[in-house]
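ok trying again, last paste got cut off:
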Amino acid sequence: MRAKPKSNKAKPVALSQLRVIGGQWRSRKLSFPTIEGLRPTPDRVRETLFNWLQNAVPGARCLDLFAGSGALGIEALSRGAAHCNFVDINSASCKTLKENLTLLKCQDGSISQSDTAQWLKKQALNNTDQFDLVFLDPPFNKGFCQPLCQQLTDSNLLSAGAYVYVETEPHVELNTPWRLHREKLSGQVHYRLYQVS
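nice, full thing came through this time. structure:
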């Protein structure tokens, strides 16, 4: 019996769903690829975070680093942010993000498929935009947070009074020049909101 020829077709990417918590797209469900290490910020954490940020989001220019599902940036856009730049290295994540923004008829988001550290380095050299709100939610247990916080500090990408949200596994120490505005521990997620002074 002859062996069946191997198919050149790529396996379809499995999809999961997230729900927008508030704003104009409240309760909309969006799909995102099921990828190892991709864990959207839980609903309860997002709800708390955006309660903290309710006065800062309208009109804000946002940056969603390690965007993944885009849950944080999309939530900000739903609540009136002026623009969000999503940065993620994974092509499937970027493709689905583009599809979701199209589905929402949102023209206020841009997507950069790139390594986050390299993207920050390039932006710092070009010195084009400043952001009012940055979401930093890297893969856990990789030691990414401290170096990236330092890069953000040195980059001149943060506007005066900008907020930086950082999500880590529990008990990660961070040394930044920013003022810690709020923090909370929820299960295996330690989340902190800083403000640039």
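cool. The chain has one domain: 15-195. The first strand starts at residue 15 and ends at 19.
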